[in-house]
Structure formats: structure tokens, C-alpha cells
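HUMAN: Mind sharing a backbone?

ASSISTANT:
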Amino acid sequence: MKKAKKILLVEDEMSLAMVVQDNLESRGYRVVHARNGEEGLKSFYHHEPDIVILDVMMPRANGFHVAKTIRNTDKNTPILFLTAKVQVADVVTGFESGGNDYIRKPFSIEELLVRIEVLMNDNRLLEQTPVSKETRFEIGNYSFDSRKSELYHTGTVQKLTFREAALLRLFCENVEELLTKESILLKIWGDDSFFNSRSLDVFISRLRKYLKKDSAISIINIRGVGYKLMIHS
């Protein structure tokens, strides 16, 4: 039996969300509904949907912020904006935030379905391209096996905890790219609470300690934003 595609619908207008959810489920999709941007981000990392339908104007993080945060760690999942905004600048902002398409309110369910199907077809084509399942990474003079959670340097082995390995892998997959604190916390911890934010600081300190034998490697802190793994030549 073919597995139903999962859609994350992030929409704070409850009457519209109910209509959209009912219609999508009647077409065989599985729908997860989030009522605001913050809830939408947590639902994205928890449910790992096949596509995101994202309202722009929402409380607790607008759609542009949500899309940017998702794109910090996920470049492929299609994002479709729902927007009452009609200015060209707003449309451009949507695409620059990581959106794949947009549909203006009010819209018909049939138009929404067509746009979803087009994005899902594009996604299936992407899946035909071999996806990197790399588990071994070279970091300066270090070698990291994420599957075994082991970090190697000149004959020595540092065993990492599950979260240490997950965090280091995230950095290795995004070398010299800025990762926001929020996206890291949601990806690794599933929650961006203050407590987990303090835990992240501790884990960053541990990784810096593990990697200190190579002076070319640094995890830099962009104050108030996030972190970046740098490997200097």
C-alpha cells in the first residue's frame, strides 16, 4: 500500500485551516496542523513532512522567519506560502526566504491541490538523484565517523555521545555556513527552550575541546545569531 504524503499546514486562521485540512485529507494526504510559527517549526522537525504550506502573517514567528529557519538545515522540502500580500517585494522576500511557490488568498482548493502536486512531483524527481548518506567526514586533521559516533586524530579515538555526534555531523554537513541557534536546537533537541539553549552552549564547548588539536579548526559564535564551523587553510 502506497504511503500517504504528509503535509504540514501552518495557519493561524482556524476556519481556513479546517477547510484546507478536510479537503487535503479527503484527497488522501496526511495533514499536520500548526497554529503559529513557533508551533510550525517544532512540528516540522518532529513530523518531517513531505511539503510545508506556510501562512506568511502569523503570531510567534512569521512565515518568512519559519522558512529561513527550515532552510538553515533542510534545503529540499518544498515550501508553499499562503499570503494575502500582493506586493512584488513581498513575493521576492518569500522566495529569498526559501519558498518554492506561493498562492494568494483567497484561493480555490483546486488551485492549491494543483500547486501541491507540482511541488510534490518536483520533489520526487529530486529523490531520483542519489542522496548523500555520507557517514565519514574529514575535518582538518580529524576524521569523524558519525555512524559510530567516533572522532579520530593521529591514532587516538574520542567517543562522542549521541547529541555530540549529531551536532558535529550537522556542522560537517554545513561547513562555513551559519547555523542559527534556533535551527540547531530544533534539529538536535526538538525544542528551542532556554534550558536547551544553555545545553547547546555546553555541547559547543565540548566540541571545541575535542577539536583543539588542530588550530585550523574553529567553531565561531555569531553573537545573538548562531554558530559556524570554520576550517582555515
The chain has two domains: 6-128, 136-231. The two ends are 51 Å apart (CA to CA). Confidence is low (pLDDT under 50) at residues 123-132.
